[in-house]
Every structure is written in C-alpha cells, then in structure tokens.
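[Automated response] Your request has been received and processed.

Submitted sequence:
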Amino acid sequence: MFGKKKEIPIYIFTGFLESGKTSFIAETLKEGQFKDGNKTLYIICEEGEEEIPGNVLKENMFIPCVIENEEDVTFDTFMKLDIDHSPDRVMIEFNGTWDPEKVIEALPEHWLLAQGICTIDASDYEAYLANMKQMMTRQFTYADLVVFNRCDPDQDLPMFKRTVRALNRRSQVVFEMKDGTINNNVKEELPYDMNAEVIKVEDDDYGIWYIDVFDNLDKYDGKTVRFKAIVYKPKRSRDDIFVPGRFAMTCCEADIQFVGFPCKWKDARVLKDKTPVYVTARVGKTATNEGMAPVLYADSVEITDPPEEEVVYFQ
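Generated structure:
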C-alpha cells in the first residue's frame, strides 16, 4: 500500500524578463541559504541575459529543468519531474508573460506553496501599468514579497506600494535603489490631516486612506474619521453591523470590487444596501485569522448624495 507523498515546499518567482528574478536567486545562493544538503528542482520558464553558472547550481544541489512552452505547465509535467528527480524542494522561475494562475492550478497536492516572490524593474513600472496593467498586476497576485529594483528617489514609490497592496494585502514591498541600497523610508504623503480632531477623507482619497489604514493600523487606532461611502449589508450579520465602503478598480473593469470596513452602529438595521452615506466613526482594531484588522464604531451615519465618481482607484 502506497504511503502519503512527502510534502515539498515550492518557491515561485514571477516578474517580466530582465526584472531581476535570476539576480535575486543568484544572490540568495551566494548567501548560502540553500547549502543545507537538500536537493532543489530548479524549473526555468524564461531564460534572460543572466544565467547562474553550472558549478554554482551543482554546489547548491540545484537540478535545472527548462519548460519552454506555457502549455507544458501542467500537473503531468510537474509529476514527471517529481518522479524523475525526487526533489526536497522546488524553485520555479516563471515567465512574466504567462498566467501565474496556471502554475498554481497545476501544482501536485504534495507541492505546497511556501513563498511567492515578484521582482519588478521600477523604471518600467508606470509604463506597464498604463499599457498592460492586467498582465503586470497579476505578477504579484501570489507574491508574499514584491521587490522593486532600480528605483529612483523621484519616482512615486508610495503609489507603487499602494497598487501592490490594493491587490495583495499580505505582500511585503521592498524598494532597492539604483545604487543597491534598500529604501525602508517610503511613506505615503497623506492628503488629509492626521492630527485633526476629525480626519476628513475626500471622495478621491478613499483609496489612499483604505490602504494606509491596513498598513498603519496602530496610527489610526482611536482616531475619528469622516468619509462618504456606500452601504453594504452582509447576510446574516448582526443588526448593529454594516459595511461602509466604495467600489474600487484594483486592476481593470473586470476586477472592480467593493472595499470597506465592518462598522458597528446602533441603528444599522434601518440602512438599506447601496445607500450613500456620510460616516463619522472611531477606528478600532480586531483580531482575525490574518492578524489585526480595522473595524469602525460609528458616531453618526447620514444619508447623502452618491459620490461623484462611482469607482475609486489606487493610483
């Protein structure tokens, strides 16, 4: 009788050609993180100008394997590689023009996604957002770490971070400058006064506020905010709970979604779905399966006119 297969951790690197995927992997090997006696199946789906020398791969017990066509990213392909090489872990350097969803769907059950890493050439990022946004943003959908390299101080780095966090709030975002240093001081210049007795969030600034609350919850804890929102009433929720929020475009029109915060208000039961309201509320925090998350405690909820723009953006 066959036993259960050994669980194998998978590391997936995404990003466009020349975005720094191979350099990142080479630097990791140089630091000796894979000299632990374990065998790594190194699946290469895109070959750029930089290659890791064969002797370095051998020293680290890396077994390189090339997949040249997207249609070959299948469960059967991965299972054959598993049987042929019996790896202890798998590293996949994915092709930036292919859909990362395909590799996730094709993973064998015992191949467990340990970490997703996306590298982005910051000098091209705004052009990619303007001309091929969906293809660009799907690169970091499954990324736990997003590394912007070749950054310039004059670029809108807070906006770069915001667009990533809008799609994937679990991602850590790192900025590597052109001189190779890491910039840990990228902060949003907020369009509202954090020191005001009541922080007034204008309609156009909802996206900035939404992301900043999640990124800096301790800074908002106990603060009172006022903003315009649309009412959403979750099914089977308590009579004193509703969700004020806005429809937001995270990538393209097909990805418009409602983003808001759970809000406790004594008269929430009288509110109807899709009613535009002004909410004045204190920000608090609550424990969830993913860590601490924001929650609102409303002082007042007033019915008002709809926002001038139905959809908000994170750029």
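Summary generated for your ticket: The chain has a mean pLDDT of 91. Residues 8-183 form a domain with the Rossmann fold fold (CATH 3.40.50.300).
If you did not submit this request, please reply to this message.
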